[in-house]
Amino acid sequence: MLYDPLAWLTWACLFLGAACAWMQPPRWRLHVPLLLACGYTSATLDLQLTWEALVVLAALFVAGAAVQPRRPPVLRFFGHVVYIGMAVALGAHLLPGFQNPIVLHALRTTPDAAPFSMYLNLDKPLVGFWVILALPWSTSRRFWRQALSSAGMALLFVVPICMLLAFALGMVTWAPKLLPYALLWLFNNLLIVCVAEEAFFRGYVQGGLSRLWGKGTKACLGALVVSAILFGLAHYAGGWRWMLVAGVAGLAYGWAYQRGGLRAAVLTHFGLNAVHFFFFTYPALQTSTLH
Asked: Whole-angstrom Cα distance, residue 142 to residue 110?
């Protein structure tokens, strides 16, 4: 990948597209479809996508067209069902056709850490891009000062609570570090992981349930809790401890989303992940040390 110009073009377009979609200036958002088209075309030419992936892209486009406000209710329902099914499958990397390049393989950030690998995923970002492009209301646009203040307040609570909880459960220990691949991790985590996950869990699930249930106080609280529970369940692969910590974190992300929109939720999510990466065992202590 290092000397592959098509790979560089692919990820330059996808990173820029995610940044434009998340940061939300109206003029920037107009460039998102063009950047995505360029990025995924480049990935296809680079043989990172096969015909199955093109079918997935077409299905997402059809689902996005189906959920638009003036469509018949049955068609909108069908579009949402298709999207939810595909979002779960894409997030779990279950759909064929995507050759996600691995950029870090079985590395240990500290001697006592479990090895981790990092992929630049072509499938998972589609989950977030669909929400942002097909359902503009999901981004809950706010001023940057609202997003920054909301994220800051959320981080004041979620960082000590989640990291102390993870420490108490034997998942991490104090391990400050600065790794040579930190910049790549930061870009990937912010623009691919956090944008996609927050667009789905907060923008789509929490925002959608709030609209469906009437936007009252109880409805907003219920939507926040449901999205946090689902976010915790999505971490089932890490066991009950990761599910618990993720569920608690999801409450903070949901609170930030309510106060400052998608920007705040993404910043809160990214802030907690960055603290974990730079100051604690990442991704977790070895299994042998957890018991």
From this structure: 39
Fill in the amino acid letter for 28.
W
- For residue 35, give every residue at least 6 positions away whose Cβ sits within 8 Å of its Cβ, in sequence order, or none: 13, 14, 16, 17, 20
Residue 224 tokens read as: 């926040």
Phi, psi of 280 (to 5 degrees): -130, 170
What's the Cα-to-Cα distance from 106 to each of 115, 166, 175, 236, 251, rounded to whole Å?
Answer: 5, 22, 19, 21, 31
> What is the distance between the alpha carbons of residues 114 and 108, in angstroms, rounded to a whole number?
6
**146, 183, 95: which is closest to 268 by C-alpha?**
146
Q: DSSP letter at 203?
A: I
Q: What is the pLDDT of residues 232-262, one digit of tens each?
A: 999 999 899 999 999 999 999 999 999 999 9
How far apart, in whole angstroms, are the C-alpha atoms of residue 91 and residue 89? 5
What pLDDT band is residue 291 in, cutting at 50, 70 and 90?
very low
Q: How would you class 3 by CB atoms within 10 Å of its CB: exposed for 0-12, middle for 13-18, buried for 19 or more?
A: exposed
Q: Which residue in this structure is represented by tokens 């479990």?
A: 114
Cβ 265 vs Cβ 257: under 8 Å: yes
Three-state SS across 92-130?
CCCCCCECCCEEEEEECCCCCECCEEEECCCCCHHHHHH
Question: How long a stretch of residues is the chain?
Answer: 291
Inform me whether the pLDDT recorded for 80 exceeds 50.
Answer: yes
Whether this model's pTM surpasses 0.85 = yes
Q: Tell me: cis bond preceding 283? Omega within 30 of 0 counts.
A: yes
Q: How many CB atoms lie within 10 A of CB 58?
A: 10
Residue pair 116/281 in contact by the 8 Å Cβ criterion? no
Rounded to an integer, the average pLDDT of 156-167 is 98
Beta bridge partners of 285: 113
